[in-house]
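Request: Could I get any protein with tokenized structure?
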Amino acid sequence: MEAILSDKVLVLNRSWVAVNVATVRRALTLVYQDVARIVAPDDYSTYDFEGWIEATREAKSGRRIQGAAFSFCVPEVIVLSVFNGRFSKEVRFSRRNIFERDENTCQYCGKKFDRSELTLDHVIPRSRGGTSTWTNIVLACIKCNMRKGDKLPTETSMKLARRPIKPQWATRVGVKLGRACKPSWERFLEDAYWDVELKE
């Protein structure tokens, strides 16, 4: 049951634009508090908490939440009743997100490695004024990191596979979805992609 309650639910704003991802537990709380409704993935009809229990009571497919007095399908999408903006989600500058951005790939030799075989490398070394920022840190395998040492890539004839930038995951509602993404989310994520504000 704990695994089910920790699963992910796509959150839409009042205009049906994807704005966040919540746990099943949080989504059910919002629905129970009457600030959101559950969206049926087949016809996009919406349900309050009691209505969803009734509508999915006899459903044969899908994962279920089983209680002493009720049983219902796990929701995958909810729509907020009031909120019509977007949640501002700043991508945190963290080791995990650097690994996500660089996809466990050494940015010098271009090979994928296990996380334990990768290090964080300052493109411009700290000893030469380099800072710990999105645009100056990349993943490097141990061999490439040793080869580069305390030099600039140009001084060792090493080239970056791609220029390091701050990730822009807003088109994926502020988070890297990975395996959390469900088929029932696709239509809404496509809308979010086309509706996101472009930077000049």
